[in-house]
C-alpha cells in the first residue's frame, strides 16, 4: 500500500480568509495519536459547512482536515483497546475543529474517541447516520428518559428535511410515535411522509412569534433550529412535555418566556453530541443499529466524493441539502 493518500485541507491566510484544497499527504503528516484508521466514509454536517466556508469560526487551528465524523477500519494501533481490522466510528470530540477530521483517506485518532461499530452496521451505514443521526438518537433517548412514550401524544421535529431532523423522523416513526414534521420545503412532503411523518407543518406557521402560551399540541419535540421556532414549540408543548434542543439552523437566540416552564411543567433538554460520554455513545449506536430501518436510511442518503464538498458546503448552510450526505473516501 502506498504511503500517499488524499485529504481535503483547509488553510487560512493572514486576512483570515479560509481556502480549501485536495492534497496528497503521507502518514508522517498525520497527528501523533495512537490509532491509525483507514477512513472509508465520512459525512457532511451543518458544522462541516461552517468549517469549509470559514463561517462561524468552528476551526480552531490551521491547517485543518475538516470532517467532524468518520468510519473505517483500524490499520494499526498502539492502544490495547483496538487491533488492526476493527471497524470503528468517530463523531465529535473536536474532530474537524481542533483535531484533524474525517475528510482524509487515513487519520490518526485517540482510542477514547472511537466506538466499535455494531456488527449489523456497515461503515457506510455509520456515516449515512453520522453525527447528525447520532444526535437525532441522543434526542430520542432524551425524550424517552423524560418519560415521553408513543402514548404521550404527537411529537414534533423541526428542520425535518435536514440531517438531524430526517433521521429523528425515521427513528421516532419506527418506535411508534406520531410524528409531525416542520419544514420550509413543502415539495419534500411526500419524502418526509415516506420516512414516517404523519403530518407536515409549514415552517412559516411555526415562525410566527408566539404568545407566552399557545394551545397545547406536542407531547415532545426534537428541535434543530432554535430561534422563534423553538420559542413557539415551547409555547405549544403540552403540560409535562419535553423539548430537546440540539441545533441553531434558524438562529442562536431564544425569545421565550418562563410561562411554559412554570405553568405547564415543560422541560427544555439540551443535547450535545460532541462531548457525549463513551457509555452513552455505545448505547446510542446500538440503538441506531436496531431502531433505524435500513430502507429509510437508504431513502434519506446521497453519496458524494471529497471533490464535491466545497460546492456542497454553502448549500447545507442555506438549508438546500436534503437528508444525509455520506462522503466516500474511495479512490
Ligand atoms: N448539539 C449537537 O451536538 C449537534 C449535532 C449535530 C447537529 N447540530 C446542529 O443541529 C442543526 C441541524 O444540523 P444538520 O446537520 O441536520 O443540518 P441540516 O442538514 O442543514 O438541517 C437543518 C435544517 O433546518 C431547516 N432550516 C434551515 N435554515 C432554517 C431557518 N433559517 N429557519 C428554520 N429552519 C431552517 C432546514 O430544514 P427544512 O428545509 O425541512 O425546514 C434544514 O434542512 C445545526 O444547527 C447543527 O449545528 C448539533
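Sequence proposed for the structure above (331 residues):
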Amino acid at each position: 500500500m502506498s504511503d500517499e493518500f488524499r485529504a481535503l485541507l483547509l488553510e487560512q491566510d493572514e486576512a483570515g480568509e479560509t481556502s480549501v484544497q485536495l492534497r496528497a499527504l503521507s502518514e508522517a503528516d498525520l497527528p501523533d495519536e495512537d490509532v491509525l484508521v483507514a477512513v472509508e466514509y465520512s459525512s457532511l454536517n451543518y458544522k462541516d459547512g461552517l468549517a469549509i466556508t470559514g463561517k462561524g469560526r468552528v476551526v480552531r487551528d490551521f491547517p485543518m482536515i475538516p470532517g467532524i465524523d468518520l468510519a473505517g477500519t483500524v490499520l494499526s494501533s498502539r492502544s490495547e483497546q483496538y487491533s488492526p481490522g476493527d471497524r470503528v466510528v468517530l463523531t465529535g470530540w473536536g474532530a474537524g475543529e481542533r483535531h484533524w477530521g474525517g475528510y482524509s483517506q487515513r487519520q490518526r485518532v485517540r482510542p477514547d474517541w472511537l466506538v466499535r461499530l455494531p456488527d449489523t452496521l456497515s461503515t457506510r451505514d455509520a456515516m449515512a447516520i453520522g453525527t447528525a443521526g447520532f444526535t437525532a438518537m441522543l434526542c430520542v433517548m432524551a425524550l424517552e428518559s423524560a418519560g415521553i412514550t408513543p402514548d404521550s401524544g404527537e411529537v414534533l421535529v423541526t428542520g425535518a428535511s435536514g440531517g438531524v431532523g430526517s433521521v429523528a423522523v425515521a427513528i421516532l416513526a419506527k418506535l411508534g410515535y406520531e410524528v409531525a414534521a416542520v419544514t420550509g420545503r413543502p415539495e419534500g412532503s411526500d419524502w418526509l411522509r415516506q420516512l414516517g411523518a404523519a403530518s407536515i407543518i409549514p415552517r412559516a406557521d411555526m415562525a410566527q412569534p408566539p404568545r407566552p402560551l399557545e394551545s397545547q399540541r406536542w407531547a415532545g419535540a426534537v428541535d434543530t433550529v432554535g430561534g422563534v421556532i423553538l420559542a413557539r414549540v415551547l409555547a405549544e408543548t403540552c403540560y409535562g412535555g419535553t423539548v430537546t434542543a440540539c441545533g441553531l439552523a434558524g438562529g442562536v437566540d431564544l425569545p421565550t418566556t418562563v410561562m411554559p416552564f412554570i405553568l405547564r411543567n415543560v422541560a427544555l433538554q439540551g443535547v450535545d453530541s460532541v462531548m457525549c460520554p463513551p457509555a452513552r455513545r455505545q448505547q446510542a449506536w446500538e440503538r441506531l443499529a436496531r431502531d433505524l430501518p435500513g430502507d429509510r436510511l437508504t431513502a434519506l442518503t446521497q453519496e458524494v466524493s471529497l471533490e464535491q464538498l466545497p460546492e456542497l458546503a454553502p448549500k447545507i448552510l442555506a438549508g438546500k441539502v436534503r437528508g444525509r450526505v455520506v462522503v466516500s473516501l474511495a479512490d
